[in-house]
Amino acid sequence: MALIVQKYGGTSVKDSERIKAVAQRIIKTKEKGNQMVVVVSAPAGMTDDLIRLAHEICDTPPAREMDMLLATGEQRSIALLAMALCAQGHSAISFTGPQAGILTTKTHTKARILNIDPDRIKTELEKGNIVIVAGFQGATEDDAITTLDRGGSDTSAVAIAAGIKADVCEIYTDVDGVYTADPRIVKNPKKLDTISHDEMLEMASSGAKVLHSRAVEFAKKYDVPLYVLSSFNENPGTLVTKEVESMEDVVIRGVTHDKNQAKITIFGVPDKPGTAFKIFNKIGEAEINVDMIVQSIGKDDKATISFTVSKTDLRQALEIVKEVGKELGSSEVLADEKVAKVSIVGVGMRSHSGVAARMFQSLARENINIQMISTSEIKLSCIIDENDVERAVQAIHDEFNLSE
Amino acid sequence: MALIVQKYGGTSVKDSERIKAVAQRIIKTKEKGNQMVVVVSAPAGMTDDLIRLAHEICDTPPAREMDMLLATGEQRSIALLAMALCAQGHSAISFTGPQAGILTTKTHTKARILNIDPDRIKTELEKGNIVIVAGFQGATEDDAITTLDRGGSDTSAVAIAAGIKADVCEIYTDVDGVYTADPRIVKNPKKLDTISHDEMLEMASSGAKVLHSRAVEFAKKYDVPLYVLSSFNENPGTLVTKEVESMEDVVIRGVTHDKNQAKITIFGVPDKPGTAFKIFNKIGEAEINVDMIVQSIGKDDKATISFTVSKTDLRQALEIVKEVGKELGSSEVLADEKVAKVSIVGVGMRSHSGVAARMFQSLARENINIQMISTSEIKLSCIIDENDVERAVQAIHDEFNLSE
Q1: Which of A158, A339, B23, B401 lies 20 to 30 Å from A398 when distance is taken between CA atoms?
Q2: Pairing of strands A238-241, A194-196
Q3: How many Cβ atoms are within 10 Å of A401's Cβ, its own excluded?
Q4: Is there a contact between A84 and B58 if contact means CB atoms under 8 Å apart?
Q5: All domains in chain A, ordered by first residue
Q6: How do residues A371-402 score in pLDDT, each as one tens digit?
Q7: ipTM for the assembly
Q8: Which positions in chain B touch A147 (Cβ < 8 Å)?
Q9: Helix B213-221, helix B197-205: angle, nearest 10
Q10: pTM of the predicted protein model
């Protein structure tokens, strides 16, 4: 008997038929003698519908009230899923995030999980109930309803798994695992049997949408074995796990891409301490996340700074940079939203030399220009023209023989 | 400065435009210097939609999960209304029933309010916030979400008004007060300026849908002045209040009718102690509410018992009665669902004689046959053919000169 946490996303609970199918899947695992906690998202599309509704009423809805509104989506899912299980003769009980003991920070709409009080879930498990928990939500210590960052249901599931010391956390999604590259772009991607937490983190942050970064961080921190599986078939998924030595034998684990990138370049700023701080402090205050930053020195003690933000943040970031640019005596500020990022990820990069050169070479062969480069210990990213993305990913995938 | 509780029903919050209009109404009262608590229902139609959805998934959904599901309706309304108030520059904060401190019994889908903890609402009022509370819901002492009987948002509003010692509770609805009879049936009804709690209770229980009985009970018990007003115009409404002596000057306050009635008659049962108990005990166990009961003695120590239930309960009640009838040696069981109830209500009935005779006479003049009669201190009800209802109500309304 194992204690299993399963998480199902919005497409898995989008209508009555899907909910009944999920119930059957849960029962199959339960009947093997396992204890089950199931975390679910809002029905697909509902969160977007509610956001639209809110904006019909208020241009900038208060974040607290947005959370009150959005939390109804998952609450609908948990009630319906519990009903579907009962209809098939199994006793189930649903809990909202607050009821499940999920304590979060007070940052509405972007709350972070602080702690899980597992008592209520455990009590129901001991009674033999299947426990259904609303993902994506929790409560502050003052009992205000909060929602996590989008995709936060993954994080809820892993945090609960950690809190109740589950044997495994299974994330059911519409893909059946983590691939060496996006199957919609690359002809011959390969599904990975295992991937390390760090690799998964870099994959997630560089564009692979299969798992939410914070969920992987939790899994790493609390050492929760994490499976990514399809909710539509029985294929074995990908296990996200602790790094083991043999993982370094593989040069790179995968190629990712992210088209939601825009580049801002500020020319002719003083090449002296404090310049970067002035720019990025203002950007940070506006709660805009900056991804890559590259600084290069020009002539006459002037520097050029380029950085990327998400396309949705471009307009606001540009306004800020133009203003700061004036103060700094910048000669020019340029923006380009026709860019994208391609990255390679793998713990093998630590021990294999020449990885960067091979990536650059494969891009050069395709006559693709590299606009910015950024590296981490196990990742290498390049900003390129967004029209070149598909060719770039395929070329790199081929170069490293990832189909094998 | 007054402390005012307002309650808006589902039609008042059914879409963005209506919600904005309600927000303006609230602001108008707030700007006169009042403190405001606003109780809202789910958007019109949403509760029915959710019930339909639940039945797609489960024939008999567990009541606890039904409450989890239904509670999302009001939660949507409170969030959107708080947003609409913020959009117009007013600070508002929403609370679900559980957050607002509404403690209920554990009878899911039909819970009763036990207590209100007013602290959280009061704290927000002191900060100058408009407090928006989800009607129709609360929590058990074990922190499970419950919903009240349908129409329970009225009860939530009055209970909160009692809990925070509000100066007045205003129920906004789609009619602009309590009338001497249903304006859709009677040509010349009169809106009542005031009505006593007891009269309102009898009106509500005999078919006037304007206020939920339990809300009136609360208002009576805690002496909360209760106004019924239209949310679509500025007309003065009806004040439901303590009985004062002058109310007895009026012979009757109003005429009500209820078409949701069905009659069951069981012939030839033993005219001895325990017979009625045997029948109504079984009916009660099936949670079927019986309205009127009339027993008459036939010959040979046999009795005939007639009673009414709601049309929706007829089939089930009939099955039970046929079974009990066999045990009791009944000669025949008949059912009639083509019946309706007309009632007159008024504290004046206590001091005016001949009221019943005048009612019977007005029906006789219209050649309407009376099938059953039931009386209380301030009410008199007759079961008649449902096709006669409109003529009956108009005739009685005329007889007592209620248009004046």
Answers
A1: A339
A2: parallel
A3: 11
A4: yes
A5: 3-174 (3.40.1160.10), 255-399 (3.30.2130.10)
A6: 999 888 899 999 999 999 999 999 999 999 99
A7: 0.82
A8: none
A9: 160
A10: 0.83
